[in-house]
């Protein structure tokens, strides 16, 4: 799987038109059809590069999502810990109860 940086590099090479699409595809071991799709996607999304507001919103959403996932994981771990402590408390109370009999 090609990273976004690799895809961008390949598409830029196609846009320079210094080599044919087939030559570039052969050099990178990627099908010409796939490179053509990347090129179309690249061209369609070029305005987003200049839309800083959109980029900032996407970054904030990404950060928020990561923070939310981390908090959900922490809640899950705390729930497990609490359940374990409650069981241990019940066991300790049961042992103390048996000793007092």
TrEMBL record:
Gene3D superfamilies: Winged helix-like DNA-binding domain superfamily/Winged helix DNA-binding domain (1.10.10.10)
Top-level taxon of the source organism: Bacteria
Molecular-function annotations in GO: sequence-specific DNA binding
Pfam families: HTH_28
InterPro entries xref list: InsJ-like_HTH, Trp_repressor/repl_initiator, WH-like_DNA-bd_sf
Every Insertion element IS150 protein InsJ-like helix-turn-helix domain range: 6-44
UniProt-recorded name of the protein: Transposase
């Amino acid at each position: 799987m090609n990273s976004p940086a690799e895809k961008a590099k390949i598409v830029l090479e196609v846009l320079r038109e210094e080599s044919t699409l087939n030559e570039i595809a052969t050099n990178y071991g990627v099908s010409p059809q796939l490179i053509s799709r990347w090129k179309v996607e690249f061209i369609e999304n070029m305005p987003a590069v200049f839309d800083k507001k959109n980029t900032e919103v996407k970054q904030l959403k990404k950060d928020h999502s990561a923070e939310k996932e981390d908090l959900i994981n922490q809640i899950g771990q705390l729930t497990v810990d609490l359940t374990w402590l409650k069981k241990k408390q019940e066991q300790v109370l049961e042992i103390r109860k048996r000793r007092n009999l």
